[in-house]
Amino acid sequence: MDETAQQKVTGFAAPKGVPEYYPSESAGFEHVRNTLIAAADRAGYGLLELPVFEETGLYARGVGESTDVVSKEMYTFSDRGERSVTLRPEGTAGVVRAVIEHGLDRGGLPVKLRYAGPFFRYERPQAGRYRQLQQVGVEAIGVDDPALDAEVIAIADEGFRALGLTGYRLEITSLGDAECRPAYRERLQEFLAGLPLDEATRGRAQLNPLRVLDDKRPEVRALLEGAPLLVDHLSTASSEHHAAVKQHLDDLGVAYAENPRMVRGLDYYTKTTFEFVHDGLGSQSGIGGGGRYDGLMETLGGQALSGVGFGLGVDRTLLACRAEGLAPWSEARCEVFGVPLGDAAKRRLVVLAAQLRRAGVRVDIAYGGRGLKGAMKAADRSGAQFALVLGERDLEAGTIGLKDLASGEQQAVALDDAVEAVLAALA
Ligand code: HAM
Questions:
Q1: How remote is the CA of residue 18 from the centroid of ligand 1, in Å?
Q2: For residue 15, what is the DSSP state?
Q3: Of 198, 388, 389, 426, which residue is 20 to 30 A from 269 by alpha carbon distance?
Q4: Which CATH superfamily is domain 336-426 in?
């Protein structure tokens, strides 16, 4: 069936590669996102609510023209004023733009910011790889201190641990600095020039030789066996920085493995670079990544200040929780479910529900004049712990039935004391 024919039969569908989270699954999504945000919040990162689209040039300049993200994956369009705008493919460039624009770097440093929300990349959709992906990110800008790199990494680790995840690894490396990178690049290019590589790979070696190290083809991997590695050619400053980051991670008890061949898809990284990899996710195993960026502030027109941050993938972290059989969240929509039998009972229960909500209890009611059986089914489906059952006779007696939905036990409580009775039952 072609797309238009299918549309006629089924109506509209969400865009390809865009995951939607609806009850009850969305409870897991929200829990993962909030747990990751809370870990950043505990370390003093303030919320930055970023625009979802920006001037296209910001990403071309900030992320790098030669990256796949910029050259192949951006959702770019002209708005009605004929400005080229792009749906944000990542958060770091936007954060740095905001810091410069609002002069946030004129106060105390580092500026510590967090953000969360959807990002957009026109990738080939598959399990765990989406065109609209959700991240929780942090950036700490203005202080080049290895302890800050370790803090950022430890926050991510805390977030994953708070979810109960255990099947992930942290890989780190150093991508050096402006002093050692150019010489290393030349050395690597020389090495690559001596290999029998195909034309496309040779082209890549000219443009971005570091990325060739990430080639997944076994025959190319074999050729790259003896390639020079940047970690062996670091400047003294980068080497000391890297050693200090690892020392802090050891002090913190955060386990890591060095991966000197790590290649990130964004061009701004210098010095510390890291990725969290989960073993239960197949090929899309990166649940988070980040690193330090020395030159980005200047590239985007700000002061020469270094920054460090991460982006954690909420969708993939949720998949990782599922892969580990973890569901530390409640899928219950409410705690108490009201079952009114008759119109007078409904009027009274609508008011009682409002009173309970005001007291902080999550309450829903059976609407639409359902009978006892249907309403009790709805109560069970809602995930509530208790049902409040009110019939005409209860009303006359001034009582209401408080039913424990797990045990099936029901007691009559005075209607006027129902709020207190429910609070006591839930406590
Ligand atoms: P990134 O590695 O491109 O880094 O993305 C961070 C995380 O977002 C990935 O580890 C992954 O979990 C998730 N992610 C990325 N693309 C997709 C996709 N297509 N589908 C599902 N999940 C995806 C950044 O974006 C940097 N801005 C991170 C950073 C912040 N570096 C420094 N500060």
A1: 16
A2: P
A3: 198
A4: Anticodon-binding domain (3.40.50.800)
